[in-house]
Design goal:
Layout lengths: L12 H5 L17 H35 L20 H6 L9 H16 L3 E4 L4 E3 L2 H11 L14 H12 L6 H10 L1
Antiparallel strand pairs: 1-2
Amino acid sequence: MTFLRQKYWNRHMSDELNLHQEHEEVAYEREDLSPRGIFAFLIGLALVGVLIHFTLKGMYGYLETYEKQHQPPLNPLVSQTENDSRKVSNADIARFPQPRLETNESLEINDFRLQEEKKLNSYGWIDQKAGIARIPIDRAMQLLAQRGLPTRLQAGAVPPSPVNMARQAVTRSNTSQQPKTSRKRKEVKQ
């Protein structure tokens, strides 16, 4: 059984290919979905969306007027405020305690980053009484490259102390030709 391939698709392509294969248990849909049905669905969906929009707008408008009409009377000791509490003036913002909501996030984060950069790239005191200062990162890297990283003492090593440093200085400055171990042996023999 040989099938010839057609170069382009057409509506009856399925029929042409299956002319040679007639099976009763195999079935397929003979029509494609019509564009009219797709467009009708999309137009209906748009109309329902517009209807829902205006229904919700009307419902919220009704609920807002209902709420305004059924407000309890204010206590005479309370100062009169604006009717719409959703609008905030600059004076109200200044009275509000810290931390406040951000009004311009990008400007505020840029100011914060600028302050942090100034701290990282300048000299200053962290605790002047304790003698703790802050230096720029570049200078700290130069000092670290010159001095090296601080190291810990190895296990079993004697920590530097005035007594140990004095002993080491004495052994270094010992100009006698006698090795240190021979002195100990002489003392032990006597």
